[in-house]
Amino acid sequence: MIEFKNVSKWYGSFQVLNDCSISINAGQVVVVCGPSGSGKSTLIKTANALEPFQKGEILIDGVSVGARKTNLPQLRARIGMVFQHFELFPHLSVMRNLELAQVKVLGRTADEANQRGRSLLERVGLSAHMDKFPGQLSGGQQQRVAIARALAMDPIAMLFDEPTSALDPEMVNEVLDVMVDLAKEGMTMMVVTHEMGFARKVADRVIFMDEGAIVEDCSKDEFFERPEELSDRAKLFLSKIL
Ligand code: ADP
Ligand code: MG
């Protein structure tokens, strides 16, 4: 479903991604971790064509992200993206946030968009808040709205970039719970996170990045149960966060 083939990217002379290859099958959950500055955000943004890359290829459900003929708005509409900062439209109600792209991009009627919005708000436990503005919600609630908004587009895969790292600790689990449910329902997910509890629960694989390169790509069991076999850089990182 998501395939990176030998992807490299430079900012000027600085190489931010170094020959990255990853293959994520439909229904798989892949957690990406690694030190700050190792290229995780850049990697995940290239999958959505939010960042260009200079070498290699990325295929989303067989469609080449870098190819000139690829319709990028159409491709982006099919991949849900949730960032660290919630990035809801502050001047629109929660429900309008959910409806807007369904109508503008997918061409749904106002009624259809509203129905879909309602069912997703129910699913993330926020039905009571549909008429509020984002600023009236807690961080955890806003992030759940952001996830619902992404799901309203019926994405074929979801990308998450540290979705809980800007939240107060007591709000982390309400967001992770929604993500765990999504994973269990079979959504294809690429998740940058240091929440290793989440990784243990639902990850099929864990990828460890350092200095733009993929240093480890292994099963959850290999990563957590046999840490002695990991690279020194991965061991050091794990020792700091676990
Ligand atoms: P991570 O998400 O793992 O913390 P990033 O992908 O954000 O890492 O950044 C990787 C590296 O690329 C960092 O060294 C960062 O300073 C650099 N970088 C990120 N964005 C830019 C940019 N627009 N121009 C130049 N360097 C950048
Ligand atoms: Mg980042």
UniProtKB/TrEMBL annotation:
Domain ABC transporter: 2-236
Gene Ontology CC terms: plasma membrane
Any GO molecular function: ABC-type amino acid transporter activity
Highest taxon in the source lineage: Bacteria
Subcellular location per the Swiss-Prot or TrEMBL entry: Cell membrane
Membrane topology: Peripheral membrane protein
Classification via InterPro entries: AAA+_ATPase, ABC_ATPase_HisP-typ, ABC_transporter-like_ATP-bd, ABC_transporter-like_CS, MetN_ABC_transporter-like, P-loop_NTPase
Keywords assigned: Amino-acid transport, ATP-binding, Cell membrane, Membrane, Nucleotide-binding, Transport
Family: Belongs to the ABC transporter superfamily.
Name by which UniProt lists this protein: L-glutamate ABC transporter ATP-binding protein /L-aspartate ABC transporter ATP-binding protein
Species for this entry: Eoetvoesiella caeni
